[in-house]
Amino acid sequence: MPTSRRFDAAGHPVFPFGANEHVFSPDDLSSMQAIFDDCMRECNFAADSEAGQALGSAIIRLYSQGQQDPILIKAELLPSFKRRP
User: Fold this and answer.
1) What is the rounded distance in angstroms from the CA atom of residue 69 to the CA atom of residue 46?
2) Cα dihedral sign, 35-39-45-51
3) In angstroms, how far is the first alpha carbon of the chain from the final one?
4) How many Å separate Cα 5 from the centre of its chain?
5) Run of H or E residues at 6
6) What pTM, to 2 d.p., does this model score?
7) According to DSSP H, which parts of 9-69 are helical?
8) What residues contact residue 34 under an 8 Å CB cut-off, 6+ apart?
9) Are 69 and 39 in contact (CB under 8 A)?
10) For residue 4, is it left (φ>0), alpha (ψ between -120 and 50) or beta?
11) Residue 32 contacts by C-beta under 8 Å, 6 or more apart in sequence?
12) Per-residue pLDDT tens over the stretch 52-67
C-alpha cells in the first residue's frame, strides 16, 4: 500500500520516524523551542497555524542535520517564512 509523501515549507520530504530517528536531549529541545519562539515573534504567526507548524518542522530538520547554531538557523529560515502571507 503506497503512502503519501509529505514535504516541509522548504520542499524537503518529511519522513516518518524509523531508521533516521533522532533523539534530542532536553537542552536540544530547549534550544529548538527558543529558536521557534523567536521566529514566530518575528513572523507574527499563530502557534497553531500551518505556517507555524511548517516552521517548527524546518527547525527540527535543520537541527537533525547538525545545524544547531540559532543565528544560522534563523538566517536560513526567516527570509522565506517572512514572505508568507
Assistant:
1) 24
2) negative
3) 36
4) 17
5) strand 6-7
6) 0.72
7) 26-43, 50-64
8) 70
9) no
10) beta
11) 24, 59, 60, 63
12) 999 999 999 999 998 9
